Structure formats: structure tokens, C-alpha cells
Amino acid sequence: DVKVTQSSRYLVKRTGEKVFLECVQDMDHENMFWYRQDPGLGLRLIYFSYDVKMKEKGDIPEGYSVSREKKERFSLILESASTNQTSMYLCASSLRGVPYGYTFGSGTRLTVV
Amino acid sequence: GIQVEQSPPDLILQEGANSTLRCNFSDSVNNLQWFHQNPWGQLINLFYIPSGTKQNGRLSATTVATERYSLLYISSSQTTDSGVYFCAVERYAGNNRKLIWGLGTSLAVNP
After folding, report:
1. Given A44, A100, A106, which is nearest B48 (Cβ)?
2. How many CA atoms lie within 13 A of B4 on its CB side?
3. Fewer Cβ atoms within 10 Å of its own Cβ: the N or the C terminal residue of chain A?
4. pLDDT at B95
């Protein structure tokens, strides 16, 4: 069964910590995405990548960075976590040139205290 | 940029009832998809439907691209249909793929 795996389901971190959220897909997809989801705000795109070592800013990149050293892995980094980054984080992947077939991970609920 | 509006924002149904969810978008798009997020947070793609009508079991969707709206029909609703339904659109720009999401319709189906 093809899937997108996010390393943690729940995570609690302290303000100022450096936080890594990992996402791995086994579908050989070129495109990978990081979203955050907040009540009343829907899904907002943080960063995306359409190839290894490529990254593009989404709508809300401030306070985040990403890394894509291998095709299957896309990491989201919170350089210095803040309480306003408490959220649900969703990773997704898709095949280049195919307009459908987005596959999402089950999400990481991050709480910054 | 393109705006996506979904209605209603919340919906409560009795099991067995039918419902229609609407998605309006402000500009022409190449891609429109419907997703369902279950109460545990898992998002699943329901339909890829930039135009026309598709059916999958009790769910069907229709997109009228010229009038910039899409409808998701749920017939004979079941408790497992509960969750949030999202509409997302896309306008292609080279290799960059970026879905623009509506805020969703939160559906609760009561037994």
C-alpha cells in the first residue's frame, strides 16, 4: 500500500527549540509539500519541492525551512519554535505532470509550550 | 490570486439524508479536486474533476467550469461520511504545482 509517512503523530516542544518534522514517501513522487492546518484557516502551504534539492516558498514560509536531500524524504525545520507555530502539520506528495493523485500523511500535531 | 469559497461551513445530517456541498472559485482553473478529511485528520482525495460529472458509489461531483463552481453530492449519508470536505483548485505554472484550498465544509452525520 503506497503511503506518505510522517515521523511523529504528536510532538511537544519548548519555545526556542529547533524542531524537525520528517516526511517519507514510497511512491517515487517528484513533488512534495508541507502544509499547516489551523481551525478557521484551512490548509496553508508552507513550502514545496518538485525535485531533489529544489524548494519553493509557499504562502507562509516565515519561520520555517525545508530540506530535500533524497527524493523520498522532505523535512520541515522550525529554526526556533514559537507558540504561534502550534498547529497540525500535513505532508503530501504527488507525481509530476499528473494533476491528481495527491497523497497525504496522517499529520503531526505539534504543540510549542 | 484565486479565491475558493465553500458552503455551507457546517452541516449536520441524520443518517440516510442527502446533501450538496458547494465550491465557488474566482477564476478559471486547470484542476479541481475534492478531498475528505476524517475525524482523525487523514486527508483522502475523492475526485479530480476540472469539468463534468463523476460518480463514485454514494458520492458524485459536478463541475461547471464556465460558471466557476463545483458541487459534491452525498446520498444516503452514513456516520463514516463525517469529517471535513475540502475543495482545492490549481492553475498550472510550469513545474510548480500549488493547490489553492477552500476552508472546507464540516459535516457531522448522526446515527
Report:
1. A100
2. 27
3. N
4. 60
Nearest to B63 by CA among B73, B76, B49: B49
Tallying the residues shown for chain A, one arrives at 113
List Cβ neighbours of A62 (8 Å cut-off, separation of 6 or more): none
Per the prediction, chain B carries an average pLDDT of 93
Rounded Cα distance between B31 and B12, Å, is 29
Between CA B44 and CA A110, with CA B37 as vertex, the angle to 5 degrees is 110
Contact A50, A30 (CB under 8 A): yes
| pLDDT for B103 | 96
| DSSP letters spanning A36-103 | EEETTTEEEEEEEESSTT--EE-S--TTEEEEEEETTEEEEEESS--GGG-EEEEEEEE-TT-SS--E
Burial class of residue A23 (count of CB atoms within 10 Å of its CB; 0-12, 13-18, 19+): buried
List B90's β-bridge partners, or say none: B31, B99
Q: What is the pLDDT of residues B4-41, one digit of tens each?
A: 999 999 999 999 999 999 999 999 988 899 999 999 99
Chain A residues whose C-beta sits inside 8 Å of any chain B C-beta: 31, 40-45, 48, 50-51, 56, 58, 88, 90, 92, 94, 96, 99-104, 106-107, 109
